[in-house]
Amino acid sequence: MNRLTSLALVSSLSLIALSGCAGPGNQQPQHRLTGTEWQVRELNGMDVTGELPGSIGQAAGTLNFGDDGRLYGRAFCNGFQGGYRLEGDKLETTGMASTMMLCTPAQMEREQLMLDMLGNGQRIEFTPGGELVIHANDGRTLTAR
Prior knowledge:
alpha+beta; about 140 residues; nine-stranded antiparallel sheet; disordered N terminus
């Protein structure tokens, strides 16, 4: 193989290897976070996907991270909103507020836990399966898909 052919082969292989780094699994956290309504699946390891007996309204938790730094969604009972800032995998939430509708005790318990974890969110990660995990500063986790 002559030197020019070797150089072309090495260049082609380098481009192929680098293009693999740009796949969806390697996007910056900000880009993976936005544009999706995340469904809360677990609060500190507890499965929260099942129906709650006697629940009022939508008994699910959702998260939406806007490109504009807005964070909003549903917290098993009430809607909430606030701001967020992400630097690398470091998460900071600000100005969190929610509506004040009264729901069942089970919904209110999940809501309080979810909002507390978001208010104390410190770091995010994405699992190989595409789940979002928010780590609170006290070690608790919120998992969404």
